[in-house]
């Protein structure tokens, strides 16, 4: 049984359940989050009014609980609004505990080499024809920041069929998609046979590409395994070892630049480890090839900044952090480029290695996944374990 108490001045109310747990809500928050047809469009749920349409002296005259609903009577509008108590519980904000910087969302699980035994993987045919398989694969991408997909066609452009499963590709100066193989006169080190340090792609863009698909069409060269590192885990490890160094990489911007082809001069000024204002790790940018001169760190902190930058690189290079695999033709992997670093090991000239890459947007992937999960809930099924 839920009870409601209204503060005498009408500025807030508290819902109390049988166990005595109390959730407070402000009058202005409740009024702004009304779901009546004059406030929200019944069809698409979009808000029809702006905050300026709500009187600043909005207060609660009365509130009653009945049949799972809370009805609130607001002044000065003399307006009554019904709220689903389950919705209020799900959106309560009266229990946000203060967080220390470096936390990560409950929707993700950070990992290290231990994930080698359980590399997230899906089957191309299954995710194409079965929404449950697609949902499970996308849920792994959201949780671990990467996943393989096996069993796809061995044909140029097949990576676009993977992206079309969940969203849209961002076209860049490298094209809708790009080739990753040895070239005689490379314009970018990604196209040579050298091993590359684990990195995030294109930190010189703002915003950066949020996802990347790398799709294998040929991989008969010796070596050339792909590897991934969880940048959020690396950042957390740096914080545990050296909190001051972590702070330096989060509080000062690095600079990134790519001007390796005619007509292109991409520049960005962003931190290597980006935090939300409440300390959540939201992005990693790490790419030795395209880090420009860093000029935004105060002189007396630059030496310590470089020490932290070096240590972050050592953590990223630590084999204990890496998950590696060799892609076969028709296989690909997708990474969250705001979180996961990727690399390939060196390969030699015998045989060939031919991958194609593209940059789908993460918001489209998360949207497709959320919509699939909503369908699943409406069908009364259990959510995916991932
Ligand atoms: Fe890359």
Q: What this model shows, in words?
A:
- A 6-stranded mixed sheet has the order 7-8-17-10-19-9.
- The model has no long low-confidence stretch (mean pLDDT 93).
- It has 386 residues and is an alpha+beta fold.
- Strand 12 (254-258) and strand 13 (266-270) form a beta hairpin.
- It has helices at 27-32, 85-90, 124-129, 131-144, 158-164, 231-241, 243-251, 299-317, 362-378, and strands at 3-6, 12-16, 22-26, 59-66, 69-75, 79-84, 121-123, 146-150, 178-180, 211-219, 226-230, 254-258, 266-270, 273-275, 281-284, 322-325, 332-336, 340-344, 353-358.
- The structure holds fe (ii) ion (FE2).
- Residues 190, 199, 201, 342 line the site of fe (ii) ion.
Search tags:
386 residues; alpha+beta; Double-stranded beta-helix; 2 domains; 6-stranded mixed beta sheet; 3-stranded antiparallel beta sheet; 25% helix; globular; binds fe (ii) ion
What is this entry, summarized?
By secondary structure, the protein is of the alpha+beta class.
Task: Encode the helix/strand succession as letters.
Answer: EEEHEEEHEHHEHEEEHHEEEEHEEEEH
- Rg, Cα atoms, Å: 25 Å
- Beta-strand residue percentage: 25-35%
Query: CATH first level of the largest domain: which class?
Result: Alpha Beta
Q: CATH fold name of the largest domain, please?
A: Double-stranded beta-helix
Structural class: alpha+beta
């Amino acid at each position: 049984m839920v009870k409601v108490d209204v503060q005498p001045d009408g500025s807030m109310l508290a819902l109390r359940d049988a166990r005595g747990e109390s959730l407070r809500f402000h009058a202005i928050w409740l009024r702004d989050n009304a779901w009546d047809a004059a406030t929200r469009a019944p069809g698409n749920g979009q808000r029809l009014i702006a905050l300026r349409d709500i009187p600043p002296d909005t207060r609660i005259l009365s509130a009653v609980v009945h049949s799972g609903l809370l009805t609130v009577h607001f002044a000065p509008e003399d307006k009554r609004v019904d709220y689903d108590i389950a919705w209020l519980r799900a959106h309560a904000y009266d229990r946000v505990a203060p967080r220390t910087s470096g936390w990560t969302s409950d929707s993700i699980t950070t990992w290290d080499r231990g994930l080698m035994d359980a590399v997230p993987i899906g089957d191309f045919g299954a995710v194409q024809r079965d929404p449950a398989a697609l949902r499970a694969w996308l849920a792994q991408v959201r949780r671990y920041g990467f996943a393989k997909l096996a069993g796809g066609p061995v044909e140029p452009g097949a990576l676009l069929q993977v992206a079309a499963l969940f969203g849209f590709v961002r076209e860049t100066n490298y094209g809708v998609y790009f080739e990753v193989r040895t070239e005689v006169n490379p314009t970018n080190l990604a196209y040579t046979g050298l091993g590359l340090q684990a990195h995030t792609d294109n930190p010189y863009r703002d915003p950066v590409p949020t996802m990347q698909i790398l799709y294998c069409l040929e991989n008969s060269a010796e070596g050339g395994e792909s590897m991934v590192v969880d940048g959020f885990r690396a950042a957390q490890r740096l914080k545990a070892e050296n909190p001051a160094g972590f702070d330096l990489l989060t509080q000062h911007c690095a600079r990134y630049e790519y001007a390796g082809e005619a007509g292109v001069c991409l520049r960005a000024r962003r931190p290597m480890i980006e935090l939300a204002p409440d300390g959540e790790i939201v992005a990693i940018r790490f790419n030795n090839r395209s880090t420009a001169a860093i000029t935004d760190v105060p002189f007396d902190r630059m030496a310590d900044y470089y020490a932290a930058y070096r240590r972050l690189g050592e953590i990223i290079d630590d084999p204990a952090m890496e998950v590696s695999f060799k892609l076969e033709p028709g296989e690909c992997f997708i990474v969250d480029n705001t979180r996961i670093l990727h690399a390939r090991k060196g390969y030699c000239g015998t045989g060939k290695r031919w991958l194609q890459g593209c940059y789908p947007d993460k918001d489209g992937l998360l949207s497709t996944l959320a919509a699939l999960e909503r369908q699943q809930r409406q069908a009364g099924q259990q959510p995916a374990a991932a």
